[in-house]
TrEMBL record:
Residues 534-562 have a biased composition (Low complexity). It comes from Sphaerisporangium dianthi. PROSITE patterns: ABC_TRANSPORTER_1, ABC_TRANSPORTER_2. The keyword ATP-binding applies. This is ABC transporter ATP-binding protein. It holds the Pfam family ABC_tran. Keywords: ATP-binding, Nucleotide-binding, Repeat, Transport. Residues 534-578 are annotated as: Disordered. InterPro entries: AAA+_ATPase (IPR003593), ABC_carbohydrate_import_ATPase (IPR050107), ABC_transporter-like_ATP-bd (IPR003439), ABC_transporter-like_CS (IPR017871), P-loop_NTPase (IPR027417).
Amino acid sequence: MEEAAISTSTSSATATEPAVELEGITKRFPGVVANRDIRLSVLRGHVHAIVGENGAGKSTLMKILYGMQRPDEGVIRVNGSPISFRNPADAIGAGIGMVHQHFMLADNLTVLENIVLGSEPRKGGIAIDFSAARRKIKKISDAYGLGVSPDVLVEDLGVGARQRVEILKVLYRGARILILDEPTAVLVPQEVDELFDNLRGLVREGLTIIFISHKLDEVLRVADAITVIRRGTTVASVDPKDVTARQLAELMVGSELPSPETRESTVTDEVALSVRGLTVRSADGRTVVEDVSFDIHKGEVLGIAGVEGNGQAELVEAIMGMRPAEGTIALGGADISGWPTLRRREGGIGYVPEDRHRHGLLLGSPLWENRILGHQTRRPNVKGPWIDRAGARADTERIVKAYDVRTPGIDVDALALSGGNQQKLIVGREMSGDPVVLIASHPTRGVDVGAQAAIWDHLRAARARGLAVLLISADLDELIGLSDSLKVILRGRMVADVDPGGVTPERLGSAMTGAAAGAESPVAAGAVAGAVAESPAAAGTQGPVTAGAVDGPPATGGPTDAPLERPGSAAAEAGEEA
Ligand SMILES: Nc1ncnc2c1ncn2[C@@H]1O[C@H](COP(=O)(O)OP(=O)(O)OP(=O)(O)O)[C@@H](O)[C@H]1O
Ligand SMILES: [Mg+2]
């Protein structure tokens, strides 16, 4: 994306003196030096990006700056003065705020309630002064064009709006320096554009933003300055005007990237997974997945495109037997609709969950025990009725090697791995034992570009051996690049079939938000013609969705901003971002 290397030149006159300076920061964990002699200077009024491989030390450094962790060595200066934080409250006091990768909002509370939680203006010492808080929220929202309304329920907001609430919450606490750890992982391209507009508004007001992302083209678009961290230490500071995404990636890994492989279809006519009339209702009776049908063949990747919260999480959980559903699910011809989750897994379904902390790992257990999780009845983890410790350990070593999980050993707790390395371990585990079907939700979320390419290679190789994959991903390049067929989910319904060979991320993003519906929309008017077409009501029953456009009117969609509820999504994910 060479053309993306245009600086936003948001820097104002204030961008002359450093807001944050880190000098000689070193942080050791058992067996690992997470940060080593880090040197970083972030100018006021800049969007300063930090990039680096999984495990390079980015989150650790940000946790140090936010008072969550203490450095072993080094000096932190904020606005020129040396400081030492004991906890995040100290950092907030110094005007530093952090937005974590996982949303930390409570779904069932309003925006106002979420924002004042923990920092309530009090009347007479006890009562919370909600009207003062509401006024302040409106003021901040207007000042930075965030468009946040205090009285809506968070569960009614889409991911882009939730992201803005998180940012507003940090601003509400008086932050002038914002740390955003992978804020774009869940956003579709249009939402990323909106977020970047908001960030520009903030830096114009003299705020400073530290931005972490693995999406290098985005980094080039939004950043005024970029620092590269490799194996714990700062190796380069570059001007986004002077580098390409590829050069940036090479700075990160210290060598050349492997070039992507060309795609060849491996789709067979043998159905591996068949879903018919699947309907899922939420606890309060609302329909969150409606009459979904599809087949996935051996050797086929079926991608599901959708803005997060449109039913994809519920669809996946229904297929895995984690939530009740109407309709039938068949695995290789056998009706598994009544099977419990473990039996489905034993039957050959691998599962990469969307929330690696909640459903993928036991954070407080060592890696080799995590290898057993969900595979506790199968070789190499058991021999007869017993857990085969040696077998599980040896296979964990194999995964660590094959998937390049950066860890001092298999006896460390999963907690000690960086976010991306946790993800690699889960993918490796779920790909072992030759699954027939892989249900993969965001398989490379938070994974660096090199490791992402490696995971894609593993998936393609398994597909060539006959693996059927249901792929959910917010990374539209990944979705388009890996999928043999693509469906768009909107408010619980499959609304369009898309030819992955003829669609761009931008057009797919429009289809996902329902923007392709209006006749006046340039997307519907022709740009997507041949790529997006309405899914006939009975599409799923007709067997394979062939690559190639289905003729028909453009997809019909409703309002763009009414995603479905994702029950229990926020609070439970509030764990520390790894
Ligand atoms: N609490 C901890 N205990 C032990 N080791 C840790 C802990 N936190 C981080 N580490 C180690 O420190 C190193 C840096 O991890 P960090 O989370 O900072 O990486 P990162 O750059 O944020 O990676 P990612 O892109 O995957 O999120 C890794 O080797 C990780 O295993
Ligand atoms: Mg991290």
